[in-house]
Design brief:
3-stranded antiparallel beta sheet, globular, single chain, mainly alpha
Length: 518
């Protein structure tokens, strides 16, 4: 037997995150409760920072390769999306670590296993217990996302999907306030996620039946030879797309998004909104450009139809939302449609091509992720009676009572809307330009139209904040957070402005990360 060759240094970001998560579980068992918060925060920050440094170092010095017995591809797109995920992971750790809001307690339940309102829960609240295991859960989720974005075979893809999904199911049900809503969100996410995983697994089985292998290059070679069953190929392609589009939040696989975004703790929602979407689009690009690139004439119309439906529903339904988190959920759905516009517009497909599509989508994800993390950080600050004031009417007059918070939220909303001088504008510009170059001008025109529609509900929130009189019975206050939340807001705001004013450097960096290998 020949021993497998594994490039341990290239896999070191994954190993660091997995090791940090495992040590975090051990901390829960051996460290006294009063010290766990400090130890877990330090460990999580250290693990994510170390993984980010190793990723950047490997990106600079290492050659692209396939490792772990052909299961993991470590190429330029891998390094780029890993860097984005780890950056968003740092933001997630900072939001999870916030304790200055809500009477000095976290956004997470003191004891999520107890019945809401029960004596056991009241006793846990009185003793100010908290779930410090949220930090190793975040690290496990982040590990799975990195693995998902770099999977070179379909079995590894499925395993990675389950690794990062299971911690998110748990985190969604741990909200300290509105516990029943949070538990309902976690249950819905789990049931619908399990269903989508079944579709993905069934699609993997069909693609194996078509190609005789699980590796992406084996599927690509089978398509080139054209000797397998065309029916199996189409069925497998559609079912795999269902599993990936569910995580992206695209129509008609979006139904979980509004309820989960609303019920989950806001730090979890913010992290999940950006990290899950980043991992999903990275995996979708790799599977459909590398493995299924030869069949692009079959999947491009499918993704074009999904993109139109996603942009339409996200933009139109967002107009009638009265809850700020549901509004951001439908905004996320609309942005999933804009991302799919870039996927559809690939000029050629397969390993070594699709440069403009991959790089433009990567830049778009960065711009969207910064604005989303910043927006959810602001949401955690706007409070009433000890809890978040999520109704849009509670934000009336916020520009007068706290112009700084309202101004920062306005900046993030302008980026969502794609207004010039923000990162969102440049992101949409490069994605739409990629689709236009790929011959999908009609889809770009529809995307611009839906962008204008979506801009209306961002504008409505800005009008509420700056030009509406506050209602005494509904008005909210802005609670000053700790440096943890402020660090997320400042980085998000500076990044949004920087990407809008001087995007050249990041566009060049994204351009170097647009080439997949087999």
């Amino acid at each position: 037997m020949t021993a497998p060759t594994i490039e341990w240094l290239l896999l070191s970001p994954l190993l660091v995150l997995l090791g940090g998560a495992a040590i975090g579980v051990l901390v829960e068992a051996v460290v006294p409760r009063r010290h766990r918060y400090v130890v877990q925060v330090f460990l999580a920050v250290l693990a994510v920072l170390a993984a980010l440094v190793l990723t950047v170092t490997n990106w600079i010095s290492a050659e692209p390769t396939v490792t772990a017995m052909g299961s993991i591809t470590v190429d330029a797109p891998t390094h780029f999306f890993w860097s984005l995920l780890l950056l968003f992971g740092l933001g997630g750790v900072a939001l999870f670590a916030e304790r200055a809001l809500g009477d000095g307690q976290s956004a997470f339940a003191s004891s999520s296993a107890t019945v809401p309102g029960s004596p056991l829960e009241r006793e846990a609240d009185r003793l100010r217990r908290e779930h410090t295991e949220i930090f190793p859960l975040l690290l496990f989720a982040l590990f799975g996302m990195l693995m998902f974005a770099s999977a070179n075979d379909l079995l590894t893809l499925f395993v990675a999907l389950e690794i990062f999904s299971l911690p998110l199911y748990l985190l969604c049900g741990m909200a300290r306030r509105r516990r029943l809503l949070s538990q309902e969100a976690a249950l819905k996410y789990f049931l619908m996620g399990a269903l989508s995983s079944g579709f993905l697994l069934y699609g993997i089985a069909m693609l194996y039946g078509y190609s005789g292998g699980f590796h992406l290059y084996e599927i690509a070679d089978a398509i080139t030879l054209g000797e397998g069953s065309y029916t199996l190929l189409l069925a497998g392609m559609v079912l795999v797309a269902v599993g990936l589009l569910f995580k992206l939040g695209a129509v008609p696989f979006h139904a979980w998004t509004p309820d989960v975004y609303t019920g989950a703790p806001s730090p979890v929602t913010g992290f999940m909104a950006v990290a899950t979407k980043t991992a999903a689009v990275a995996a979708l690009l790799r599977v459909f450009f590398v493995a299924l690139g030869g069949a692009r004439w079959d999947w491009q119309p499918m993704f074009a139809a999904v993109a139109v439906a996603t942009m339409l529903l996200g933009s139109v339904i967002g107009l009638v939302q009265s809850d700020i988190k549901r509004l951001l959920a439908y905004s996320s759905i609309a942005h999933a449609g804009f991302l799919l516009v870039g996927v559809v517009g690939v000029v050629g497909a397969g390993a070594g091509v699709a440069l403009s599509s991959v790089s433009s989508i990567g830049f778009y994800v960065l711009a969207y992720g910064l604005a989303t993390l910043g927006a959810f950080a602001i949401v955690t600050m706007v409070r009433r009676a000890g809890g978040e004031a999520n109704t849009i009417s509670a934000w009336r007059g916020l520009g007068r009572s706290n112009p700084l918070a309202a101004g920062l939220m306005t900046l993030f909303l302008l980026s969502f809307a794609g207004i010039p001088l923000t990162g969102g504008f440049v992101g949409k510009l490069v994605v739409f330009a990629s689709a236009w170059t790929g011959g999908y001008g009609w889809l770009v025109l529809l995307a611009v139209l839906f962008s204008l529609v979506a801009a209306f509900f961002y504008l409505r929130l800005m009008v509420v904040m700056w030009f509406s009189e506050p209602v005494e019975s509904e008005s909210a206050d802005v609670v000053q957070p700790s440096p943890w939340t402020w660090s997320v807001i400042v980085v998000a705001a500076v990044g949004t402005v920087f990407l809008g004013l001087v995007p050249g450097g990041l566009l060049d960096l994204a351009g170097t990360a647009g080439q997949f290998i087999r």
